[in-house]
Design a protein that fits this description.
Number of strands: 13
Largest sheet: 6 strands, mixed
Shape: globular
Number of helices: 20
Helix content: 40-55%
Strand order of the largest sheet: 6-4-5-7-8-9
Structural class: alpha/beta
Strand content: 5-15%
């Protein structure tokens, strides 16, 4: 987009560029955050979840309400540079990132797995200190909040459980006494190096910004200034100068540093919803005011669409070779048509220029034919209903969009300016439709064999996973559907026994829901719970078919 300002806001209108959703450790969903931002009359926001872009994706899928401006964001946990030893993570904010960028998502996936591996060790330390806590309780609490992202919970959620059980007075108390750096239940975790964090943000088309410098405990202001200089040499381009947890003098100091070293300036509340009830979106503790002019300069800097529009306006075509597609087109016009969204065609208003919707229609038919054929020849044991169900799970919008992201397809789609401004390259619907159009282009260019190879390459792994799930059903999910529908209640699981050596344990799980109880065993807690759910499911089936007395 040529102009970063979508609406004529006053330069001092309020924004908030540091917000967490329930995709990480916040308590509000991305749609609820967007609605609240509109109610608060904020001019622009960014959802910057810890080590995940799922919050930003959900916001884009929901749709950014007018007249709110939105920039994709993330907050990455990184190691400080070698010469700056302090406990905990350095947090690098990434703004305007391409949320489908493969390198970025690989780095975030490593961090997510590190958080998952860290949680059991924290719980064990707390248990060894005599506190009656379990990871299952944390999971149950988060599930009770209707969280859709169970893979990204961490210390804040453990702290909430400690408050709930009366161990600590507040979340801050839990961190100060047990969970924070140098505290008895603190566990170090894997972090990427700060140079890598900065690099992946920039390669994803974004602006790397140092979050809340006030929170880093350095020896002096000279040390923090030296840190900022070091990060600038690595590619850092911004500093969060406005923050809820700092004094006016500190804000003035960081503003001075940003001006001295020619940094972009950003600011935000670090809003987490009810997790930090004293911090309000847009206003922090009541005196925070981050002006719209910060957003305007940031948007101008990160605007990837300028480069895309330049290539479109000068007529350059770089779409015939999609890097990860592994197919070279003989007829370049086919792939060009497959990548033209109707918004681009409508804007150009050129005679004979066609959008990709006809290709989308054909690609859908080819995809259904090939996936159906693959399922038939690979799995002769499956019945018609099973085949139809598995094929439907393969060709739905979210699955197609996921494959399109793996191909970095969004970078090649030709969109109109309006669709570009609303991050159309990252929308599931556009990505899925375009991928179907690309399948059609391959079919028209290379025939059914070429299209079949493309589909088999990108669908085999998920196909086999879905078939395996058909053979090994998720009894926990099945049971939950039944009990919610019939009993209006959720099953509760607990581990009641562990036996065997550490390297070969057997777990016993108990399930209860209303007047139904069942037990199961397995070599992991999850397998034990699945076995308990299977046994309970069989009990329910038996009761349904038992003759009346």
């Amino acid at each position: 987009m040529k102009k970063p300002l979508d609406y004529n806001y006053d330069a001092e209108a309020k924004i908030d560029l540091h917000i967490h959703s329930d995709a990480s450790d916040g308590t509000l969903s991305p749609p609820a955050i967007l609605d609240m931002a509109v109610d608060l009359k904020l001019a622009a926001i960014s959802i910057t979840d810890h080590d995940t872009v799922k919050g930003a994706l959900k916001a884009l899928d929901y749709g950014i309400p007018s007249p709110l401006n939105f920039i994709t964001g993330v907050e990455i946990s990184a190691n400080p540079p070698p010469d700056f030893a302090f406990k905990g993570s350095l947090h690098i904010l990434g703004y305007g990132i391409d949320v489908s960028n493969r390198q970025l998502n690989t780095a975030l996936d490593k961090l997510r797995k590190a958080r998952q591996n860290r949680n059991p060790h924290i719980i064990k330390k707390l248990s060894d200190m005599g506190f009656n806590l379990s990871l299952d309780e944390v999971v149950a609490m988060v599930e009770g909040d209707d969280s859709k992202n169970m893979n990204n919970f961490g210390r804040p959620h453990i702290a909430r459980l400690m408050v709930k059980k009366g161990i600590c007075k507040s979340i801050d108390d839990a961190f100060d006494l047990y969970l924070g750096a140098d505290r008895p239940a603190y566990v170090e975790k894997y972090r990427i190096e700060c140079a890598e964090a900065i690099e992946v943000i920039r390669k994803a088309g974004g602006a790397p910004v140092l979050a809340h410098p006030v929170l880093y405990q350095t020896e002096s202001t000279t040390a923090i200034e030296k840190l900022i200089i070091t990060l600038k040499m690595m590619g850092l381009c911004g500093l969060e100068v406005n923050y809820s947890e700092q004094t006016p003098d500190q804000t003035a100091y960081y503003t001075g540093l940003a001006r001295r070293y020619d940094f972009l300036m950003t600011g935000g509340s670090d809003f987490h919803g009810t997790l930090k009830p004293e911090i309000k979106m847009g206003s922090g503790k009541g005196d925070l005011h981050t002006p719209y002019r910060f957003y305007a300069k940031l948007a101008h800097f990160i605007n990837r669409e300028d480069r895309m529009e330049k290539s479109e306006s000068d007529g350059s075509e770089q779409t015939e070779t999609i890097k990860n597609l592994c197919y070279t087109f003989k007829d370049k016009d086919l792939i060009r048509e497959a990548l033209r969204h109707r918004s681009y065609v409508n804007e150009q208003n050129l005679p004979g220029l066609r959008d990709n919707e006809r290709f989308e229609f054909l690609g859908d038919a080819v995809l259904n034919l090939v996936t159906g054929h693959l399922l038939m020849i690979r799995h002769p044991e499956l019945k018609e209903g099973d085949l139809s169900r598995i094929r439907a799970s393969l060709v739905n919008e979210s699955q197609l969009a996921a494959i399109a992201r793996n191909l970095d397809l969004g970078a090649y789609i030709r969109l109109g300016r309006g669709e570009s401004k609303t991050k159309g390259r990252e929308k599931n619907s556009i990505l899925a439709d375009t991928f179907e159009a690309v399948i059609a282009a391959v079919y028209l260019d290379g025939g059914l064999d070429a299209a079949s190879l493309l589909i088999e390459t990108h669908f085999t792994k998920v196909m086999e996973a879905n078939v395996a799930q058909e053979h090994n059903p998720d009894y926990k999910s099945k049971l939950q559907e039944v009990t919610q529908g019939v009993h209006k209640a959720m099953p509760r699981y607990s581990i009641v026994d562990e036996s065997g050596p550490d390297h070969d344990k057997t777990f016993t799980a108990r399930l209860t829901v209303r007047n139904l109880s069942a037990q199961g065993t397995g070599k992991s807690k999850k397998l034990a719970e699945q076995d308990a759910a299977r046994n309970a499911f069989q009990i329910l089936k038996h009761d349904q078919h038992a003759p009346e007395q």
